[in-house]
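Teaching soon. Invent one.


***
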Amino acid sequence: MITRGSQWHRWDPHVHGPGTLLNDQFGGDAPWEVYLKAIEACMPRIEALGVTDYYTTNTYEAVRLRWKQGQLPGIKLLFPNIELRLDVAAKTGFVNLHLLVSPDDPDHVNEIKRFLSRLHFGAHSDRYDCTEADLIRLGKAADASIKDDRKALAHGATQFRVSFDGLRSAFKESAWARDNILIAVAGAKGDGTSGLQQAADKTIRQEIEKFSHIIFAGSSAQREFWLGLRDVTVEQLQDRYGGCKPCLNGCDAHDFATIGRPAEDRYTWVKGALTFDALRQAC
């Protein structure tokens, strides 16, 4: 019997969906039907999908429910991607950081919510935890004219900033997080670590990138840098950042037209089984 060795599979780790908390452009009368068909129609075919939302698992849970019902049959691995904003300013915004969560634990949704609740933000002479209830509370505190909880949740998400030191401490203190979460940081200039270009930012940039398992980037320059093929060697990467880092690129779709269509068609391919462990091994 002839068996195939490890194969390359297309992953898209960064796709938003209908109801995503910010910049939701998935409109129309039947957004879910259009959304699911768009994912299935992608070529090359997406087989591993990271469903993304800001600070919450809401969109992931909605997609997962439909997936469990037999929709998205081409997707063999579905996992949550929680998008956060750090309290570190980049060139045009705050540094984006993502928690990619293994779905292997049957209770992973509750566990990630428990982990998120350990992240805090201080404002308005109060402490706000990274929970849906406190994001709503923050949104209403920041804008007293907001009465609707959904609008308050979205506004709270624009205000909440995650302390990098707080996140790093919470991660180190949680065995579940260490076993089930991979940290990905945006590598772009606008809202990623490449936007930390001042000399005073060098240390914090290095600390964030060292803490991260993955760089979200699609440029050849980033890929070559993190392979040790640019102005630093593999040995220097090991010393400064804990080793080489895989670069992943997703479409970051907020509308139907860009689902599965990353800039310049720079897709992510992962070699191995269609399991979260394949990504973990790449790190």
The chain has a mean pLDDT of 93. The longest strand covers residues 77-89.
